[in-house]
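S.,

As promised, the pyridoxal-5'-phosphate run. Input:
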Amino acid sequence: MALVNEHFLKLSNNYLFSDIAKKVNAFKVSHPKERVISLGIGDVTQPLCPAVIEAMHKAVDEMSNKETFRGYGPEHGYDFLREAILKNDYLSRGIHLDISEIFVNDGAKSDTGNIQEILRWDNSIGVTDPIYPVYIDSNAMIGRAGVFENGHWSSVTYFPCTAENNFIPQLPDHRVDMIYLCYPNNPTGTVLPKEELRKWVNFALRNESVIFYDSAYEAYIRDENIPHSIYEIKGARKCAIEFRSYSKTAGFTGVRCGYTVIPKELQAFTLDGKTVELNHLWERRQSTKFNGTSYISQRGAEAIYTPEGREQIRKTIDYYMGNAGIMRDALTKLGLTVYGGENAPYLWVKTPNGMESWKFFEQLLYGAGIVCTPGVGFGPSGEGYIRFTAFGNREDVEEAMKRIAEWMK
Ligand SMILES: *Cc1c(COP(=O)(O)O)cnc(C)c1O
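Predicted complex:
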């Protein structure tokens, strides 16, 4: 008799975005003439830039020729891309990494979800709250998160990020072995200044913890004082793994490519106190369970680092951040309290009069035909907020702001 992994049964069946889709469909059925505008889901809308397309076309042509055809590539990625990453994303900021510390992947979701496998199931975990659901759910699947009761996982330490603490998470008063940080943050769109990030690095060094640092939105940072990489902080190489993705940087959500950095200095312990390099364990894990990212995707990613590619992706990011600016201004003018949207493509909006997230979601849908994401879907501290994304088309964003103004009159 095959027994299931019962930890999976602890996960909620109601995935946030399918709940939203159900409610939106119900609205569409009863309001067939109304055009719904979604400022909800975190996918990009602008196409790949010409430099990427050209590089991918060329790679496809190479595949058609016996001399230049490529089969399985290295599990950790091709050196042409790893070298471009080292030089452009790190060396340019004074961070020296070795090529063996870069693991190219098929996007940050896989690695942020899988990375926890290389640490024992009974480590304690801590997450900022609200949060990208992958971090907790992937831990719940092997039993590390405990059970879900009253909106909380019993074995997870939550670091609340709310208007009350200006979205700056406070250090816990007890040891936490595995810490997830995401900056610029999805869903709140807020950032962590260097001196605050330094506190987390020092906490991790003192407690011999590991920080999983998701910087998928690094390219959206505008403020010069905000760190792009956790390795800008002294000591982080001994305690942090960093995740990056081309999804939001360059519209790769459908192409699939990103990478993970695991410095050689980063070690964890066996029960009898021996040290083990996490870089080595991850290499071992990937060579068993992963067969590399497609050559075509990696050539596309490489093209982002050319002068043309750089300029072209910058334009698209500016376009999204232009949307964010329009939304921030319009919503603030209407008297709403808005966070984020300055160094990230997300706006985190306080619901009026402390209304529950889902209630405001429904009112906005039925009142203005606009879809947002209820903040409570990202964790208990998200209650009383909603998230807007800036990934829409400019005309839709403008129309949405008009409708909201009309509705709020
Ligand atoms: C979108 C996103 C990612 C990127 O996921 P991919 O698998 O690379 O597409 C990673 N982390 C966060 C927080 C995100 O919002």
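Residues 42, 107-109, 132, 182, 186, 214, 216, 245, 247-248, 253, 258 surround pyridoxal-5'-phosphate (CB under 6 Å). The longest strand covers residues 240-245.

- D.
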